[in-house]
Amino acid sequence: MLDRFNFLGLPKKVAFFITNPISFGIYDFQRVVSRQFYFIFAARYAAQENKALKEQIGKLLSENATIRKKLAEEEAGNLQEKHLDAQTYNLLSARPIGLGRYLKIDQGSDAGIKLGWPVVSSDNLVGKIVSVSEKSSKIQLLSDPDSKLAAFSQNLEGKAKGILIGHFGNEVVLDKILHEEKIGVGDLVYTEGLEDFLPRGLILGRVEQVLTRENEIFKQAKISPNFDIRDLELVFVIKE
């Protein structure tokens, strides 16, 4: 009744004057606290989402790498079939799993591999088996200083014979070439096949430089491989 006849107008104004700043302060404090809690929860949610995205990206990258590796292995296998005939040569595929002085592969005596067997990639000779365990083997590369093979080069002018010798530092030299024999930069070099374990006609590399010296019976040629050993996804062992 008092409020109806405006007798409480003044007390209400006094009360509003006192309580409004307090209400505004409480409201403003509530907004600040709300923003802080929202930031904390948003930051936590963003961190969780970021972690989930990173895990998903990592999984996708891993799956992509696996698919690319399988495709590369399939391409290597298909390419190999176009070169050495599987009906002529009994081929066993293997993956490189380590590279030091020797190239290590993931096939060993359990797969029937034996010492001395040649290893190829397409028509190119990679090396020969020099160490065998149950689950792995080691391949002596052409650049190994203990590697020596009878070899020849061929071009339109003729043929040159020599001994392919490995050196430390991935250098390979065709040595003992007679001066009168024709050999030039870019000529392909092949296996002679005089070794019992090695077929004739496998590619050993390409002539990079011909080295001649006066008053010497023989000349040499530096040989560069047709592939990078580190890029090989698969190699193939020629079984007996």
Describe, in plain words, how this protein is organized in 3D.
By secondary structure, the protein is of the alpha+beta class. The chain has 3 domains: 1-82; 90-141 and 231-239, Rod shape-determining protein MreC, domain 1 (Thrombin, subunit H, Beta Barrel); 148-224, Rod shape-determining protein MreC, domain 2 (Thrombin, subunit H), CATH 2.40.10. It is 30% helix and 34% strand. It has one helix at residues 9-81, and strands spanning 90-94, 96-99, 102-105, 118-121, 124-132, 137-141, 148-155, 158-167, 171-178, 188-191, 203-211, 218-224, 235-239. The longest helix has 73 residues, at 9-81.
Summed up:
Helix content is 30%, strand content 34%. The N and C termini lie far apart (117 Å). The chain has one helix at 9-81; strands at residues 90-94, 96-99, 102-105, 118-121, 124-132, 137-141, 148-155, 158-167, 171-178, 188-191, 203-211, 218-224, 235-239.
How many structural domains can be distinguished in the coordinates? 3
**Helix run count:** 1
- Shape verdict: rod-shaped
Main sheet attributes: strand count, strand direction, barrel closure: 7 strands, antiparallel
What string, H for helix and E for strand, traces the elements in order? Answer: HEEEEEEEEEEEEE
Q: What strand order characterises the main sheet?
A: 1-13-4-5-6-3-2
Mean of residue pLDDT values: 82
Estimated structural class: alpha+beta
Low-confidence segments, given as residue ranges, are none
**Percent range for helical residues?**
25-40%
| Beta-strand content bin | 25-35%
Number of strands: 13
Give me the Rg, rounded.
38 Å
Q: How far apart are the termini? A: 117 Å
